[in-house]
Amino acid sequence: MNYSKLFAVKPGSRVQLAGVKSGFTGKHENKTAATAEMQRDDRRLADLQYLLYADHQRSLLVCLQGMDASGKDGTVRHVFGALDPQGARAHSFKVPSQEEADHDFLWRAHVHAPAKGEIVIFNRSHYEDVLIVRVHDLVPESVWSKRYELINEFERNLTLAGTTILKFYLHITEKEQLRRFEKRLDDPTRQWKISEADYTERGYFPEYVKAYEDVLAKTSTAYAPWFVIPSKRKWFRNLAVSKIVVETLKSFDMKVPPPTVDVDEIRRKFHADEAKEKSSA
Ligand code: ATP
Ligand code: MG
Question: What is the pTM of this model?
Answer without folding.
Answer: 0.95
